[in-house]
Specification:
By secondary structure, this protein is an alpha+beta fold. It is built from nine helices and four strands. The protein has a single domain (10-420), classed as Outer membrane efflux proteins (OEP) (Up-down Bundle), CATH 1.20.1600.
């Protein structure tokens, strides 16, 4: 059969909210408009501390890229000097000047430091994507948890009403001598259990509400409600897992770290290269301020520096950088394999959860029809209490199973979305 898409109707939300203000003491005075998923996602995107911290790391990485570029621009220095000798043979001396230097090789034509800074920035962005995906998964799970708690409370109240009617029915048959006392006591106990489920469901709503508030990155207690659906997208069972694995934040970060390590090896090897620099300066000095233009002097220099020996530390640094590069290669391969396996696991769980909703729907439809027929048969004396009780309990169990299956399908989808890196960031 075609998979059924379950939606929460507007009328249901209205009556659920009305019931909520009735059953929760003190809630009517503090009731708020129900929050949609989009509203919760926006709040988390704007205020969750983990996302804000990851964004700060990205901005720091962007500043690091700018700082790495600055190393390849000329250095300019200005100076102003005043000196007054103790002897009387010479007078005060004033001077000011400007000096500049520019590294020519290795430099403008070869900038591995800039490329490395860009890769570090890519790693920071991948980390932001991973954090955003984790926050979204936790938020989605908390949101559907509160939605489930609200609907379970409504279901528990419905079951409680049904159990009380069953008590009246069994008591009438017991008073008429057509049912024994044990059946009446069992029906009454079941009604008491249903009332307990209602009270337990109210407490579960309060806990689920706080979990959602925390998942949004907020700490204050608020009496919130949510509105939404248990609708899920149909998963693509034959998805290209290997291709998706390369796009996950973990693999992106590992790839950036590996490329950065490779550039680090290049940087260490460059320490053996000679350095050519061009510098120049212009100064004016005299015994009065400001020194006249005729008292100027300037100089320029082209220098070559060749590293000869510094204890052999460069060779050890190159060897360490080479081993770090190999380590990053192995880590990238391991991360990619783990990501592919995780994707397969989450995809299978998503498919299972969605198909389970279809199965539970069939069971629930059958249980409702059986309960309707059994109710009429028991009332007319054509069915024993034991058989009727089994059918009633099956209906209640199937209603609970169905609600749980719809919730679990959304949670499985949230886990899949986190695995592929779907986050709150635009």
């Amino acid at each position: 059969m075609d998979r059924m898409i379950w939606r929460t109707s507007t009328s249901w939300i209205f009556f659920a909210g009305l019931a909520w203000t009735t059953v929760i003491p003190g809630h009517a005075a503090q009731a708020q408009s129900p929050l949609t998923w989009e509203a919760c996602a926006r709040m988390a995107r704007e205020a969750h501390p983990d996302i804000l911290a990851a964004r700060a790391a990205v901005r720091a990485g962007e500043a690091g890229v700018g700082g790495s570029r600055a190393a390849y621009l000329p250095d300019l220095d200005g100076s102003v000097d005043y000196s007054r000798p103790h002897s009387t043979s010479t007078g005060d001396k004033y001077s000011y000047g400007l000096s500049a230097s520019q590294r020519l090789f290795p430099g403008l034509a070869d900038q591995p430091e800039v490329a490395q800074a860009k890769l570090n920035l890519e790693a920071d962005r991948a980390e932001l994507a991973a954090v955003s995906a984790a926050v979204r998964s936790d938020l989605r799970t908390a949101f559907v948890g509160l939605l489930h708690a609200q609907e379970f409370l409504t279901l528990a109240e419905k079951i409680s009403g049904r159990r009380r009617k069953n008590v009246d029915l069994v008591k009438a048959r017991f008073d008429a001598g057509r049912e024994h006392r044990g059946s009446f006591l069992r029906a009454r106990a079941q009604a008491g259990e249903a009332d307990f489920d209602v009270r337990q469901a109210r407490r579960a709503v309060r806990v689920a509400r706080q979990e959602l508030i925390e998942a949004m990155g907020r700490s204050a207690h608020e009496d919130i409600l949510v509105s939404g659906t248990f609708e899920t997208d149909t998963p693509v069972e034959d998805a290209a897992v290997e291709t998706l694995a390369d796009r996950t934040p973990a693999v992106r970060k590992a790839a950036a770290s590996r490329q950065s390590s490779e550039l680090g090896l290049t940087i260490e090897r460059r320490k053996f290269y000679p350095t050519v620099s061009l510098s120049g300066s212009a100064t004016r000095s005299a015994g009065r301020w400001p020194p006249p233009s005729t008292a100027g002097d300037w100089s320029s220099a082209l220098s070559l520096s060749v590293p000869l020996f510094s204890g052999g530390s460069e060779r050890y640094d190159v060897a360490a950088a080479a081993e770090d590069f190999r380590r990053q290669e192995f880590l990238e391969q391991s991360t990619r394999n783990a990501a592919a396996l995780d994707l397969r696991d989450k995809l299978a769980a998503h498919v299972d959860a969605v198909e389970s909703v279809d199965i539970r729907s069939d069971f629930l439809e059958a249980a409702r029809l059986r309960a309707e027929i059994a109710q009429a048969q028991y009332t007319s004396g054509l069915l024993t209490y034991q058989d009727w009780d089994i059918i009633e309990n099956d209906l209640i169990a199937q209603e609970k199973f169905m609600l749980a299956a719809r919730r679990d399908a959304v949670i499985a989808e949230a886990a899949w979305d986190e695995a592929i890196g779907k986050g709150l960031e635009p």
